[in-house]
Design brief:
alpha+beta, 12 helices, Restriction Endonuclease, 10 strands, 2 domains, Arc Repressor Mutant, subunit A
Length: about 325
C-alpha cells in the first residue's frame, strides 16, 4: 500500500466540533477572510506558529497525495534524506534531473508550511546544497498527524550524529525494499518501523520485556513468503551487546507469542557495514549458538536486498 493510501479515511472528520462552522453560507468573522495558505506559500513566508484549526483543515485538503506521502513516510522513518525522499516519492519522472528539481520544490513548499523541517546538520556539507538535508516531521505536520492518531508532540532537539546515522541506515533498508518491490524483485507485503514493530512479552520469572527491532518486514517471491526482524548494526556496539540482543530474540521466540499471532517466527537479519564486521558477528553467533542455528542471519548493507530476495546466501551461522 502506498504511503498516501488511506489518507482520506484516516484524517476525515477528525476536527473537534467547536472548530467546525455548521451554519449554511457562514462567513468568517471580521471584515475579510483569512489569507489563504496558497498565497502565503507563494509569498515565501512561513505559516509555522500561526496555523489555526481552520487553516489546518484547509491544509489537509490542499496537500497532494504525494505531499501526504512525504509526511507519512517521515512519520514512519523519523528521518529521511532528500535523496531518500526523492527515491520514494519522485521516482516516476522522466529524468533524474526532473525528479530532483520537483522534489526540492515540493520539500521547500512543505517546509514553508511547517509540515516538515530539516536538521541543522547536513550530510555531505553545506556545498552539497539542499540535497544534503536530513528531514523530519515539522510542528504543523505533527498537528496534522495528532488529529489522526493522537500521537504525542515530538521533541525538536537536534539529534546526535550517531542517532542520525543509525536512523538513516534503517530508513535506507526500508527504501531499498520499496525499490525492490517496484522492480518486481519481490512483493513487499508489510513494513513496520519503530515503535510499531516492538514486541512486548513476559521474560524470565514473569518480568516484562520489550523487544525492539529496527524494522519488521514481510516479503514474498514467486514461491515463498518471508518474515524478517531487521537489525541494523553500524559497528558502534560491542559484540557482547549484539549477543545480548540475540539472546532476547531467543527468549521471545520461546514464548510462542509471535508464532501464535502471525503464524511464523521471523528470521533475524543483522545488516552490518562491511565484510569484516559480518565475519566477526557470524563467528560470535556460531560460538554462542552452534553452526545449525537458523534464527540469526548476517549480511552487509550492500547485499541486503539480494539476501531478502534469495539471490544470495547470507554468511549466517547455518552456512
Amino acid at each position: 500500500m502506498s504511503p498516501a493510501e488511506g489518507w482520506s479515511d484516516r484524517w476525515s472528520d477528525r476536527v473537534e466540533p467547536e472548530t467546525m462552522n455548521t451554519e449554511v453560507g457562514a462567513r468568517y468573522r471580521g471584515d475579510t477572510a483569512p489569507e489563504s495558505l496558497s498565497s502565503l506559500v507563494r509569498s515565501g513566508r512561513s505559516v509555522r506558529g500561526r496555523t489555526s484549526a481552520r487553516r489546518l483543515l484547509r491544509l489537509q485538503s490542499d496537500l497532494s497525495d504525494r505531499e501526504r506521502g512525504v509526511l507519512l513516510g517521515l512519520a514512519d522513518c523519523r528521518l529521511l534524506t532528500t535523496g531518500q525522499l526523492q527515491r520514494l516519492h519522485f521516482a516516476d519522472h522522466a529524468t533524474e534531473g526532473a525528479a530532483s528539481r520537483i522534489c526540492r520544490r515540493v520539500l521547500a513548499r512543505l517546509q514553508r508550511l511547517g509540515v516538515i523541517e530539516h536538521l541543522d546538520r547536513r550530510i555531505g556539507g553545506v556545498r552539497a546544497g539542499s540535497a544534503s538535508y536530513v528531514w523530519r516531521v515539522g510542528p504543523v505536520g505533527e498537528r496534522l498527524l495528532r488529529q489522526d492518531d493522537g500521537a504525542p508532540r515530538g521533541r525538536h532537539k537536534q539529534p546526535g550524529l550517531r542517532f542520525v546515522d543509525h536512523v538513516l541506515a534503517v530508513a535506507e533498508c526500508s527504501v531499498q525494499l520499496v525499490e525492490a518491490d517496484r522492480r518486481g524483485d519481490l512483493e513487499l507485503l508489510t513494513t513496520e518501523h519503530e515503535p510499531t514493530c516492538w514486541r512486548g512479552f513476559l521474560g524470565a520469572y514473569g518480568s516484562a520485556e520489550t523487544l525492539k527491532p529496527d524494522l519488521y518486514a514481510v516479503t514474498a517471491t514467486a514461491e515463498y513468503e518471508d518474515s524478517w526482524f531487521i537489525e541494523v548494526d553500524r559497528s558502534t556496539e560491542s559484540l557482547p551487546t549484539l549477543l545480548k540482543k540475540c539472546a532476547q530474540y531467543e527468549r521471545y521466540q520461546r514464548t510462542g507469542r509471535e508464532q501464535e499471532q502471525r503464524g511464523v517466527f521471523p528470521a533475524v537479519l543483522w545488516v552490518v557495514p562491511d565484510d569484516r564486521r559480518a565475519e566477526v558477528l557470524v563467528a560470535a553467533i556460531r560460538h554462542r549458538y552452534g553452526t545449525d542455528h537458523e534464527l540469526f542471519r548476517v549480511t552487509t548493507a550492500a547485499s541486503f536486498v539480494s539476501v531478502i530476495v534469495g539471490a544470495a546466501d547470507p554468511p549466517g551461522p547455518s552456512n
